[in-house]
Each structure stands twice: as C-alpha cells, then as structure tokens.
C-alpha cells in the first residue's frame, strides 16, 4: 500500500518531498534572496543572529520583525564594531519574518496550490502562515543552528506548528544540511521561549543536550521540501564548504480549535495577520 505523507509525518516527525519546486523556480527565489542583500541599508542596525549566543533574546530588532523584512547578520561576518568583514552578499544569516506577506515572489510561492495541498493532506482545517525566512548559510560564515524543536519558539496546542523547509540549492553534509532526529516529535516539548511583559525573551530551561547518534543527515537536492513537525528535534552545522546553502522556510499553524500562546515572541498584528492559507491570494 502506498504510504501517505501523513503516515510518514506521524511516524518520523518529518517528510522529504523531492521536486517540490522546479530548478527554475528555485533559481527565481535565489535571485530574489540575493536581490534583498543588495538593499542592505548601511544605517540599519546590524543585528547579529546567532542561536549559539542567544543574542536574539535581548534584541528588539528581532522582536519587531514579525511584520517586516529585516536583516540578520552572521556573527562571523561582522567585526567588533559591527563593521562588515565580508561582501554584503555573503553577510546575512537570514531575512525575516514577513516575506510571505510583503515580498511578491515569496508570497506567490507561499500561498501556492502545492503548499495548500500539503496542508490538506496533513489534515489542517484552517492553516495560517505566521512567519517566513530566507536562510543564506553562506560558505565559510554560515553559522551552526543548535538542536531545537520549532515549538520552543512557536507554541501552539494541541496541534503543533508545521515547518516547510525548502532547499533552493543542494543541501549537503558539507554545506550544512538539516540533521533530524527521527521520531523525536513523540518525546514532548523540551524547552520553551517566553516573551515577558517587559519585552524581553526568556527560556524556561537550558538547551537540552542530544546525542549526535540520534541525528540523521537529511541531504537533499535543490527543490526538495522537508516538512517538519513542530516537536521534531533538528539542527544544522556550520557551513565550512565553499558552496552556499540557501533555503526558504516558513511555518504554518492550525487556527481552528487550537491555542496560540500569547507568550510566543511572534504575535499576530494589524500588519502581520495570520491569514487562512486556503483562502488567501498569491497576489498582495
Ligand atoms: Fe527549526
């Protein structure tokens, strides 16, 4: 019997969908991602994004990015005084978190029939995209992402969030592909990040340590979409290769009969509504 993506998703906590995008579609998104790097405003605050140092916790630049397209730099790309040490095109860790609403090309691919079909197959009744990111993972500077569950940052219950992670370039062990711990979505929620009243962020406990042997590298060719259960533990390594590993990722939540934590860093706003994916147009 043909195994459905729902079976795999429930068993492993992730599903690999090859050829989700065609090569030319990936190239269009990569061109858009590179174009964004040409618009880096030198006066814009250079916010270093590093999950290793937890710097985002104190960063209002990050907190206010829910309804904007903001830049997050690699720590290895900036000098002590925030000056760029590499070419701007190689300096970014990511941009986020409202590409799906504000950027016409990313909006088009996010609210596509393919994405809607996946949500239907996984049983979503009223799915909404709540955040989106373009991840650069550039050669030499692309930083490590420590093991985590997405639900740490985006708490919903009883239905956890769903991550779409789309490789826009080949993702290999050398350039920092995802490593996933199969079945770990059945082990509960290991850590939560809370937004406090004074607009600071705080974890409820230290980052858990997971044995390396629990992870499987999920190297995929460009155009592949990896669906991630909100509770599955995943990570990626520093990019020590000479090839970039661009990806587009976004998260979907269930809105029907489901609780969205008011303590999540990301909140729905006038400029960043959690629109029903099934009924939202690809055009702004
Ligand atoms: Fe993640």
Q: Would you kindly provide a brief summary of this structure?
A:
With 284 residues, this protein is an alpha+beta fold. Helix content is 17%, strand content 23%.
Q: Main traits of this protein?
A:
alpha+beta, 284 residues, 6 helices, single chain, 7-stranded antiparallel sheet
SSE blueprint and pairings:
Layout: H1 5-12, E1 14-17, H2 23-37, H3 60-63, E2 69-73, E3 92-97, H4 99-102, H5 104-110, H6 113-121, E4 127-135, E5 145-148, E6 156-157, E7 162-167, E8 178-180, E9 193-195, E10 201-203, E11 216-218, E12 225-229, E13 234-236, E14 247-254, E15 259-260
Antiparallel strand pairs: 1-12, 2-3, 3-4, 4-14, 5-13, 6-15, 7-12, 7-14, 8-11, 8-13, 9-10
This protein binds fe (ii) ion.
Fe (ii) ion is lined by residues 148, 150, 234.
